[in-house]
Amino acid sequence: MKENYQMIMEKEISRLSENEKPALLLQCCCAPCSSAVLERLKEHFKLTLYFYNPNIFPESEYKKRLEQFDALISYHDFDNIKMIPSIYEPEKFENSIRGLENEREGGLRCEKCFALRLNETARKAKEIGADYFCTTLSVSPHKNAELLNKIGLEAAKEYGVKYLQSDFKKKEGYKRSTEISRKLGLYRQNYCGCKYSIWFDNKND
Ligand code: SF4
């Protein structure tokens, strides 16, 4: 039977104390996807954003996606959300997916890509003393929430930080992300991120 990760997240949130918000480090793939996730989580967690995406190609595209967060964070509802300075290390991505360059989107290359980003987020969460970590990636209809949650739970075990199981596309999360993005005039890319998604897939994130 398929897990309902939205329900699992709601149960986890219902167990939180009303008086104290736990700290959550959120790996953000891009500002449009992050918009609806921030809206969903900000009431329950002290959020710190982590734009850790060594998969993005070329560097100019990486900078363009990163710049969109200025508009998102200054959006009045999100103005107390912090962001960790970004690091771009494309060689780490290339090393982690070597031999899988020709995989279709959603295949083994993506699994490695998710693991790279989630493991680094778990490591960073531990470093800064966050209670939880999570990713915005599941808001996309193209991203497999089951796989993301499996990788997140493995990284949680490895680093000793809780992973917030989730599926942000549920409850019209993707639709909401397009609404906020339109309202803020955010740039929405037309490919997932890596050079292979431009060459072989070329579909929206
Ligand atoms: S298609 Fe997207 S998720 Fe898959 S490897 Fe490329 S950037 Fe990562």
Which properties best describe this structure?
binds iron/sulfur cluster, alpha/beta, 205 residues, 8 helices, globular, five-stranded parallel β-sheet, Rossmann fold, 5 strands
Task: Describe this structure as you would to a colleague.
The chain is of the alpha/beta class. The protein contains 8 helices and 5 strands; from the N terminus they run αβαβαβααβαβαα. The chain has one domain (5-201): 3-Layer(aba) Sandwich (Rossmann fold). Strands 3-2-1-4-5 form a 5-stranded parallel sheet. Helix 4 packs across helix 5 (108-128) and helix 5 runs parallel beside helix 6. The longest helix is centred in the middle third of the chain and has 21 residues, at 108-128. The chain is globular. It starts with a helix and ends with a helix. The protein binds iron/sulfur cluster.
The averaged pLDDT comes out at 94
C-alpha geometry: globular
Low-confidence stretches: none
**Overall tally of structural domains:** 1
**The CATH topology:** Rossmann fold
Radius of gyration: 16 Å
The run of helices and strands is HEHEHEHHEHEHH
Helix content: 40-55%
Contiguous helical run count: 8
Sheet-strand content, in percent, reads 5-15%
Second rung of CATH, namely the architecture: 3-Layer(aba) Sandwich
Query: For the record, what is the CATH homologous superfamily label?
Result: HUPs
- Reading side by side through the largest sheet, how are the strands ordered? 3-2-1-4-5
Please provide the count of β strands.
5
Distance between the termini: 27 Å
Largest sheet: 5 strands, parallel
